[in-house]
Automatic annotation (TrEMBL):
Pfam families: HTH_31, MLTR_LBD. GO terms for molecular function: DNA binding. The lineage of its organism: Bacteria, Bacillati, Actinomycetota, Actinomycetes, Streptosporangiales. Gene3D superfamilies: 3.30.450.180, lambda repressor-like DNA-binding domains. This is Helix-turn-helix protein. Residues 41-88 form the HTH cro/C1-type domain. It comes from Nonomuraea fuscirosea.
Length: 268
């Protein structure tokens, strides 16, 4: 009989012990809360009951003597420990597993990021999109530059939808820039659909564009997928004419937010 491979991951066991020690023991009628406890936190029996796994198996996990835990067990432990997304990802990595993808991007922007946008109103355009490619926020400089690209309707804040439906796209970006955006936006949509395969909004957006836009269908058939983080763009400002920007995209993975910075180039 072949033995199951053991975790051999002492860091995982140490992390489990520390998380268990940090939990508050449950209140139980007729039992003093911590009067007879010699160590802080939950007992292994209590934690295993919350997680729905056997105490014997959990004990072996803490001691590094158990077979490598499944993703289902890790998910149950993360739930029992009430871990944040970052803590859950750390738990999975300690066990040698890829962290689970979020079910959907966060719709709330960090207050510090909003303050940054306002601070740079007169310096550079900045936009923030979520993992569905919907615009969440922009500063005054971005509104001034990109306002003509806005659309109405359910998908009006979506960069892919704007790319293939906003009449002003060639005027703002030029023909080359419009083609570059169409290619990048389609590739980003394919990546978003692979990350959130059950997302109804993304699926319906794809169906809408596939039905109404021949240009989108052509780009989709190319099968490109990926992210375009550093590009040089020329955009036509409503009052100042053609301007050149170095664009850089920063990713906040815990919320799946994408921050695009438009750094203006000085005229040659």
């Amino acid at each position: 009989m072949v033995d199951m491979p053991h975790t051999d991951r002492p860091d995982l066991g140490e992390y489990l012990r520390r998380r268990r020690a940090a939990l508050t023991p449950p209140d139980r009628p007729g039992i003093a809360r911590t009067s007879h406890r010699r160590v802080p936190g939950l007992r292994r029996q209590e934690l295993s009951e919350i997680a729905g796994i056997s105490v014997e198996y959990y004990t072996r996990l803490e001691q590094g003597r158990a077979p490598r835990p499944s993703r289902e067990v890790l998910t149950a432990l993360a739930r029992a420990f009430t871990l944040t997304d970052a803590e859950r990802a750390h738990l999975f990595r300690l066990a040698g597993e890829l962290p689970p993808e979020p079910l959907s991007p966060d719709s709330e922007i960090r207050p510090g990021l909003l303050r940054l946008l306002r601070t740079l109103d007169d310096t550079m355009p900045i936009t923030v999109h979520d993992g569905r490619l919907d615009l969440l926020a922009h500063n005054a400089a971005a509104a001034d530059l990109l306002g003509p690209l806005s659309c109405t309707g359910r998908y009006g804040r979506n960069i892919v939808y704007q790319c293939f439906t906003a009449p002003a796209v060639p005027d703002v970006l030029g023909d080359d820039g419009a083609g570059q955006l169409a290619r990048a936006a389609t590739a980003e949509l394919r990546a978003a659909l692979s990350r959130y395969p059950g997302d109804e909004y993304l699926q319906s957006l794809h169906a809408e564009l596939s039905e109404t836009s021949a240009a989108f269908r052509d780009h989709w058939e190319r099968g490109e997928v990926g992210s375009f983080h550093s590009l040089t763009k020329r955009l036509r400002h409503p009052a100042r004419g053609w301007l050149t920007f170095d664009t850089e995209v920063l990713h906040a993975p815990e919320r799946d937010h994408w921050i695009m910075l438009y750094t203006p180039r000085e005229p040659a």
